[in-house]
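note to self: the first set is below, dont mix up w the second
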Amino acid sequence: MQSNPMRKSAFHALPILLLAAACGTDSAGSANSANQNANASAPWFKEVAAERGLDFVHLRGLPKRFWFPEIAAGGGGFLDYNGDGHLDIYLVQSAVLVPDEVPAELADQPFPGNRLYRGKGDGSFADVTEEAGVGDAGYGMGFAVGDTDGDGDQDLFVSNVGRNVLYRNNGDGSFTDVSAASDLEHEGWTTSCAFLDYDRDGDLDLFAANYVNWSPGVEIPCRSHYGDRDYCHPNNYNSPTSDLLYENDGNGHFTDVSRRAGLTENFGNGLGVAVADFDANGYPDVYVANDLLANQLWMNQGDGTFKDEALLAGCAVNMNGTAEAGMGVAAVDIENDGDMDLFMTHLRDETNTCYVNRGGFFSDKTSLTGLGGPSIRFTGWGMGFADFNHDGERDTYVANGRVGIWMPEYDTVDRYAEPNLLFRGLPGGGFEEVLPRGGVAVPLVHNTRATAYGDMDGDGDIDVLVVDNDGPVRLLENTAPDQGHFLQLRVLDAHGFDAVGARVELPGPAAGQRPTQWRGVQVAYSYCASHDPRVHFGLGSASQAASVTVHWIEGQAEVFGPLEVDRSHTLRQGAGQALKR
């Protein structure tokens, strides 16, 4: 594969070679040409992965195979597996897609697997994969985090091309593979996934998106417009599939209820997943970003079934009625009006799209946000919204990376590399791009897939984990200038789970000051990633204690506070002051 001509050595040497190659690419791209304009500022991030103990290098497969799944791989994110309050990191490997194809000189080498890094509390990490027992060596895509058996510990579900895996947390720093016993050993191509309590029975169920029905036997040689061997277009496979819904039976065992719930009525090429209560009926809904097919908005009917209402709701296709190449997706209240909107990344020549929620119906407002124009030259994947500089306006970081060889090329080593983008949030819901591009002193020009967001060092601001396809992981420490005050909240439901779907309202203190802000409790969004579950507010110059209202998904609301600013707080359902309606 031209992105890595040296990969003929043994598996254990690959990360070293890749790291050496990738470290030279930060300054190689032509993306540095636009470092000075009206939006230029001091860097918002510093890349610190190596110095903080992260030595993971993602591998997309054996050289010169060009199998379709290779170009979509690269998942990872945050979790707190040991419950110590410090974020840990799990990174998903994709080294060997078809073991029978491994060359003889590599046959006796162990396949690289997933890695778990324990957060030490000071922003540094230690590799604990072996003692934890979570080094699955399948062809990984992403993962989801949730307490599947109600014992208070976070379990791990790993999505693969092939056998999916559920690791049950033993509570002592180790995990047990219970995939078979839990009936979660689906064989296919699973991408983004999320735990949710879709039936509101008090235990976590699982939604898993599937991409296409793929096997090595369907591969054909494809070439780029320039005659080089390249990855095939998705239309060459023309094999969409349905997504999966597993109901938790209450003891950590799962039953596939996809057909009963209605998910087999529509097929798609699922890549991104976002969970939110889009119509405020008290039940979590699921949005799926599909590649080249209409997106799906699975509206929870409250009786164990879902209906795909994306077309009627206005978020299946773009404003021209065309299905686009949906990659990653986030549910976010961009307008701060109390309901959840959608933001989705797309293939180059298609703008990233913002669908604004109008009471359960969506309107494509991309052109009004400022997020569309800069994205049209790039292929977006992971993304997320956070107030990185604590000025009271959410910003967004967007990861990019190609799926084919196109001109111009930004990097001489990886022909699929593109620069990532950072946008500053503006009053009124608009955005402007921040330069240096991507918010770092020397723009990162790589082939990024997953991005995850969280306060990895406990200093109160949001950092970014960047997972590259076929390259080393990046960890962006938040160094944004002129940071204001903040408020950070862990919001738990009555069962002690992260209250996914709940909305948190922070009222503005007075006219002419900070406006009311809304945040949703989110754990799974972006692309093949898991995130810090804490809700985060930037407060600007406001330093006084603040009260918040939590709108629980069942319809009740509670007021908590006053809460001291520049602190992290835990809010549990039933512990606040009930708000009369």
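second set (the one i keep forgetting abt)
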Amino acid sequence: MSQSIEHLIPDQFDEEARQEWIDALRSLAREEGKQQAKLLLDALDDEARVLGINRTTVPFSAYRNTIPLEDQPTFPGDLEIEERLTSIMRWNALAMVIRANRIHGELGGHIASYASCAEIFEVGFNHFFEARTHDFDGDLVYFQPHSAPGVYARAFLEGRLTVEDLKNYRQEVPNRGLSSYPHPWLMQDFWQVPTGSMGLGPISAIYQARFMRYLENRRMVRAQDRYVWGVFGDGEMDEPESLAALALAARENLDNLTFIINCNLQRLDGPVRGNGQIIQELESLFIGAGWSVIKVLWGSEWDTLFALDRDNVLLKRFAETLDGEYQDLGSKDGDYNRQKFFEKDPKTAALVKHMTDSEINALKRGGHDLKKLYAAFSQAKAHRGQPTVILAKTKKGYGMGGAGESKMTAHQAKKLDLDNLLAFRDRFSLPLTDEQVANLEFVEPSPDSEEIRYLQDRRAALGGYLPKRFQQAETQLPERPSCREYAKAALEADGKEMSTTMALVRILGGLLRGRNFGRHLVPIVADEARTFGMQTLFHQIGIYSPHGQNYEPEGAGSIV
């Protein structure tokens, strides 16, 4: 997708004229607002078509954050505490997997996936994921299956899991162990929805959001503003199920749904799109399907560089850099990034001339920046009329250093040597001695520590803990009518032959007419109702659409 950059950064055909147009646009946006500037650009685009000026536009935006700095809301939490909590959970998740593999080398598990999306999870847990309460049924979160250790690490700090639970990761027989991936059957009081194998989570999240809206539209439940969140991987988007229902979500205006795609650019065996840019590809796919797209690519450390870059030279370098190169850059230090990325163009080299190699090395990707992520989550939750996808750029194995950060082998990493473990501790300022690091001891702050009090307060404000599965429905269905009531037509066939299909349709019709029971019955037919003689149900109960019926059908005067 990077080959189309010329449409994003125009050639300097006439620098003076170009600058006049840009200055005029900036002035309009400043004086009249961004919406007026957008309307003007739309009008110019329409006029260009009238004049026969055919522009080839690209189906994605420039390789930068969707939300500009001036529109970024103030971060409402304690940034320092949340960063400390994220570091603790990152360590505990890592320690859990490595401890298990020291005991049984074949147990497996994943370190690098959660390491890449810990900040994504924490923004959700601290500010957006609402739990079930006495008057609210709660949000549903579909967690990336390979990142399950991070959810266990958080539940441990919340006091819901013990040290023994963590020690039994992936060891479910004979003890109460922690399952490899989210599944309610394996941990019936914990996981709410299954998300593995890959591809199951995205399509399930869409149909769950649709079903929640269906229940509200049919007035089977009261409207509660429940939300469905899904955290998935960029490689997972290649599963056929992942993208299969995108158009349905947009068509039904499911603004109670947000995907957060952890774009660490890697799958098991290598880059997701080594010769391209998966983020740009996903943006075009989601936009084409009718979703709102928010890109979170660069952390706050880049804001100063963007402010200095009046000629968009950074955007040009971003656009011409392939994901295979981004992966390589992510695994190297500041000096290497200066030489291989910035010094490819004298103008980008000049932008970082004042920066040390350490400062260049500290330029984070957006998916590791709590403030940038909070802005994206907030905008997604407020958006109306469309589902939203957040494309968050991260590093696979973030924090693993030479043992796995942005390395091809990151996904298979199950163990780290002592030097890498000590480096991990130092990088995240963890309160562990060398001996505790060697023994892979879990970090467990006291209940009255600043971190745990903050964590508990945030969850209390959002209704309690999540995920947490409730197995008993609070609403009881009305009593089922007797067989004589709903199956009379089928039972009293007067000696006439009757197909099983006809009997089924008559029984179904009788159930649907039941005064109390019928409204709870929803026939789901895969485009075969007429084939099975069920067309009379069209008039009896209708065909559901969230928009109603806005046309007069061809067979309006017919009962079939």
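remember for set 2: The radius of gyration is 27 Å.
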